[in-house]
Amino acid sequence: MLPKSNRISRRILVADDDPIMVRVVTRVLTDAGYSVVVARDGREAYRVLQHDADFSAALVDMQMPHLQGIDIIRYMRTEKRLLRIPVVMMTANQNLNVQGESFAAGATAFLLKPFTTQNVQTILRLIGSTEAAQAPA
User: Fold this and answer.
1) Over the Cα atoms of the chain, what is R_g?
2) Before 86, cis peptide (omega within 30)?
3) Predicted local confidence at residue 47, as pLDDT
4) Of 8, 13, 64, 130, which one's alpha carbon is 20 to 30 angstroms from that of 81?
5) 33 secondary structure, DSSP code
6) Any idea what DSSP says for residue 5?
7) Superfamily classification of domain 9-132
8) DSSP codes of every residue in 74-120
9) Confidence (pTM)
10) Cβ burial 81-113 (10 Å sphere, 16+ → b, else e)
11) Each residue's pLDDT tens digit in the chain (137 positions)?
12) What is the pLDDT of residue 136?
């Protein structure tokens, strides 16, 4: 067995204040074999990430109470232990500036709400290719 630091996690952080969105995303992710850690607002996501970096990815809503998704991404990109985690920004805001700001902050992918199961599966393929690139030889 690989030491914990060299194993690839099958956990995904989902940070969103919309319970329906959390339920939908959690279902797709668990069906794909991931376990999901849910944060119901930006502050909770921040607290989780302060103590836990064992995630395959993070899906973060742009607009949440206490801390915005972009703030979570910026935090993740300043912490060495969180740098390897792909971050997907989720939002219903169709403004192209929001997408640009997300990528500038360090988002790996952008998921426009409402999205389909196929959209989430595409993101999972991206995460899977990231995991394969990180796996020790």
Assistant:
1) 14
2) no
3) 98
4) 64
5) T
6) G
7) Response regulator (3.40.50.2300)
8) HHHTT-GGGTTS-EEEEES---HHHHHHHHHHT-SEEEESS--HHHH
9) 0.86
10) ebeebbbbbbbeeeeeebbeebeebbbbbbbee
11) 333 444 456 899 999 999 999 999 999 999 989 999 999 999 999 999 999 999 999 999 999 999 999 999 999 999 999 999 999 999 988 888 889 999 999 999 999 988 888 888 888 887 776 555 554 44
12) 45
Q: How far is CA 111 from CA 54, 65, 116, 135, in A?
A: 22, 19, 10, 25
Residue 34 is encoded by which pair of tokens? 């991931």
Sheet arrangement for strand 109-112: 35-39, 11-15, 57-61, 87-91, 109-112
Which residue is listed with tokens 């910026």? 74
Specify the length of the chain in residues.
137
CB of 32 closer than 8 Å to CB of 10:
no
Going from the C-alpha of 99 to that of each of 58, 84, 89, 102, 134, the distances in angstroms are 16, 21, 8, 5, 26
Residues 9/33, Cβ–Cβ less than 8 Å: no
Strand partners, 35: 11
